[in-house]
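Subject: for your reference before the review

Hello V.,

The reviewers asked for a structural picture of the protein, and I figured it would be easier to keep everything in one thread rather than splitting it across files. Below is the amino acid sequence we used in the manuscript, unchanged from the supplementary table.
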Amino acid sequence: MNYTQRQKLATVLKYVVLIVVGFVMVYPLIWMVGATFKTNNEIFSNLTPFTAHPTLDGYKNAMNDYGGQINLFKAMINTYSYVLPKVFFTVISCTITAYGFGRFNFVGKNVLFSVLMATLFLPQVVMNVPQFILYNKFGWVDSPPISPFDNPFAVCV
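And here is what came back from the structure prediction:
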């Protein structure tokens, strides 16, 4: 076996390994999507993502009253009423902050940027109590979380 043949064989083996590993990584997602069309008994009876008798009962039950108490549409609306303003205001404030640090030279720029970078090393759990105190002083407790001032990662990314 010459060098060219060994190189082709190595390439084929690499692709075979990549395809097998890729399938192993994607299979749980495929199984979960397939399980949405099965009954509860079928979900736990085998590991194949396919069923002989697909049904949409799971979707119907989820949209009506999931667990008898949760309306999925109302839950989605509540989630988006919190998430969309938060994302909007975070994008605006982080863009302005990043532009200010990138474009302008001012006194204390390095110190302020160092403080910003230092906040990246703090876990979010450490920031929860100071944020609660700050939000309480601003009167933001029990209001939609639209504060853009708690995400230093978005500025630096």
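For the response letter, the relevant points are probably these. The first helix runs from residue 3 to 35. DSSP finds seven helices and no strands in the chain.

Happy to draft the paragraph if you're swamped.

O.
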